[in-house]
Amino acid sequence: MEIYLPIAELSMNVFLLLGLGAAAGLLSGMFGVGGGFLATPLLIFVGIPPAVAVASQANQVVANSISSLQVQWRRGNVDLRMGLVLLAGGMLGSSAGVWLFTYLKRIGQIDFVIAVLYVVMLSTIGLLMMFESLNTYFKRRRNPDGPRGKLHTHYLVHRLPLKLRFYKSKLYISALLPIGLGFIIGVLSAILGVGGGFVLVPAMIYLLGMPTAVVIGTSNFQILFVAANVTFLQAATNGTVDVVLALLLILGGVVGAPIGARLAAKLPGVALRALMSLLILLVAAELLTELLRTPSSLYSLGTREVLP
Amino acid sequence: MRLLALLACLALLVGATGALAQGPRLEPAPGALPAPTIGGPPSAIAPPSVPIEPTTPDLIMDLSLARVSITSAFQGESILLFGMFDPPGEIVVVVAGPSARETVMRKQRFMGIWLNTGRQAFDDVPAYYAIAASQPLQRLLARGAGGEILSLEDRLASLKPATPRDAPELARFRAGLVEVKRREGLYPAAIGQVTVQAGRLFRVDLPFPSRVPEGVYDIRVYLLREGKIVAAVSRPLPVGKVGFNAQLAGWSEHEGALYGVGAVLMALLVGWLGGAVMRRL
Questions:
Q1: How many domains does chain A have?
Q2: Which residue in A41, A50, A7, A25 sits closest to A249, CA to CA?
Q3: Could A258 and B13 be called an inter-chain contact, meaning their C-beta atoms sit closer than 8 Å?
Q4: Residue of B13, B25, B270, B272 to mutate when probing chain A, most A C-beta within 10 A
């Protein structure tokens, strides 16, 4: 069944879009990340204009994060103070990101920048995850109980000014660090149409040293507001949010997420992470091939401008 | 009890999308149909240089649809153009979409990666252009149809570049433009020859792809005798979104901020309800 998407201005199969949403939801249920990093490139791949794919995917992220936040909030897994500091950076970053997006679109380089950013980011994260999961696997085989490490290690970053106490995260660190992190995630979110959970979550664990229990809830909190900001700004400045597309992705995601969560409960964590890293690397490889392969057509068209 | 209420909410939502997929039906609006032009060309169409017989021959045309309505179920549309003329003669049909500035971008390999390095904007590019005739077009136009009927090549040769560039480069960008438009089905290479029956009835199918740009399209039918235009009729064909699609697109374009707030609220509501419902199942 085909449906015409009023902002993307083309017709697309309803079940394809629902399926894409469900796949993203499955990932989010399994790994607690948004799945946007997979959905956006796939949307572009099936022919949705990149600008519309990114903006509508941000809209989907809003729905996805509110539904995870519901649970996390009830369980008290949100460090509100940390969330707000991250959010301060995130708001700035996402606003700057939407501006940058508009500029890149005007000079005709947005597709290229999106592809390159995805390749760099996905391959880095995919490789890191792959090594980490293999490492855990072999360590555990050698030493089933595993040694207990320090709560967190201290780096140079802990000597920055503007230190704040984050009670829930048991941290005393410079606010500049989460603000900076939030900013970067905000920019990524605006340009790539992702929540950024798959960057934010590892960064919160390894860079900020937050306890794992509050990481997912707090990142969900920041992502919710950043994605809402991106959706609003994209709609207000570029008019590229397709709510019909977003609604289909959201409905797919609503069904996919709990299935993913149930699967995750049954499968061992290490295998799951290895699987995820493989998936990420696969998408990265596909995008890289697109960049390197001689295109079928050298020419493309920018936006039509009706002259007065 | 609560579970039931939540289920009902989800059902409503699903129902709403279903209705959305169905979309508003196409309204034929027979009243909006302008009366078929009978008789000779209106003075606006025939250039004064074209010699017209004292008694202009009859040329009538009509379309199977008065407009192209982009509904939620729109997948492109094929419109039948048909009519009648006074034999002898040949029929040429030209369909042109609204003009706008288009920017053509060209990729080049740079350090192993393909990226857009060249760009050229053209003014006055028709969004859609199709031409069909009852005889091979080259043969008809070679005899000089008063310079009014332009083949796609002739039409595009007259494009004004927004910025000056040397001729061979311009030609390459122009070819690139045609290539992209062809791929999108907006410059159909051949919309099938105009078929003539009983020597005086003609018909041709005009294909519009799902990506067809909105605007008022101009349809012209010419009757040629010995390479000269002896009669011509024209008709505007509005192409546009209707109903729900038109409303959404309008809000997105004119009330972007409000549309953004609505999109966020929709996502919050569906995400919240969906999450709550699915967790209970």
A1: 1
A2: A25
A3: no
A4: B270
B108 token code pair: 């080049």
Length of chain A equals: 308
Kindly list the residues from chain A whose CB atom is less than 8 angstroms away from the CB atom of residue B181: 301
B260 touches chain A (CB under 8 A): yes
Q: Let me know if B197 is exposed, middle or buried by CB neighbors in 10 A (0-12, 13-18, 19+).
A: exposed
Helices (H), chain A: 14-31, 36-45, 50-74, 80-106, 110-142, 176-192, 197-202, 212-233, 243-266, 269-292
Task: List chain B domain ranges.
Answer: 1-24+242-281, 36-238
B177 CA: distance to closest CA in chain A (Å) = 7
b (16+ CB within 10 A) / e for A36-67: bbbbbbbbbeeebbbbbbbbbbbbbbbbbbbb
* CA neighbor of A304 nearest in space, from B95, B213, B118, B245: B213
Q: Is A305 among the domain residues?
A: no
Which residue range forms the structural domain that includes residue A21? 2-144+154-291
- ipTM of the shown complex: 0.84
- pTM (whole model) above 0.80: no
Q: What is the pLDDT of residues A187-243, one digit of tens each?
A: 999 998 888 887 888 888 878 778 877 888 888 889 999 999 999 999 999 899 999
Is residue B112 less than 8 Å (CB to CB) from chain A?
yes
Q: How many CB atoms lie within 10 A of CB B205?
A: 15
Q: Say if CB B125 and CB B100 are below 8 A apart.
A: yes
- Whether the ω angle into residue B88 lies within 30 degrees of 0, i.e. cis, is yes
The reply to whether residue B275 touches residue A257, judged by beta carbons under 8 angstroms, is: yes
What mean pLDDT is reported for chain A? 83
**Tokens coding B214:** 């909105």
Which neighbouring-strand residues pair with B126? Answer: B99
Cα angle value B89/B90/B92 (rounded, 5°): 145
